[in-house]
Amino acid sequence: MSIELITSSAARLFEKDFDLAYMRRFRAAGQRESGPLLGLCREMGWHGLIVDESCGGFGFKLDALCALLQELGRAGFPTLYFSHFVAPLLALDALP
C-alpha cells in the first residue's frame, strides 16, 4: 500500500458515499460524531496506518498520516479520527 493508494481510495470513498449533500444533512441534524464512520475508518485500516507492522499495523510514517488527514479535511469528514486513532498512538510512542 502506498501513500497514493491511501489518498486516492479516501478521495473516491468521500466522493461516492460522503458527498457535500451528506455532510450538510449530517451537520443539519446536529450530529457531532458518527460511529459508522469510525467503523469505516477501521475497515479501511486507517486505525493502524502508523502502527508498526510487527504490531499488526501498516508501518507507515507521518507523511502517510498527513496525506490521509489532508483528504479527511478536504472532505469535511465528520469524525474525530485524530483523537480516536492518532493521538493515542503518538502518546504511546512517546513513552520511554
Structure notes:
This protein is 65% helix and 0% strand. It is built from five helices and no strands. It is globular, with a radius of gyration of 14 Å. The mean pLDDT is 82.
Number of helices: 5
What portion of residues is helical? 55-70%
The average pLDDT score comes to 82
| Rg over alpha carbons | 14 Å
Instruction: Give the DSSP E fraction (strand runs of 2 or more residues).
Output: under 5%
Give the low-confidence spans. none
Tell me, what's the shape?
globular
Our measurement of the CA-to-CA distance between the termini, rounded to an integer number of angstroms, reads 30 Å
What structural class results from the helix and strand content? Answer: mainly alpha
Major sheet description? none
Kindly list the characteristics that best describe this protein.
globular, 96 residues
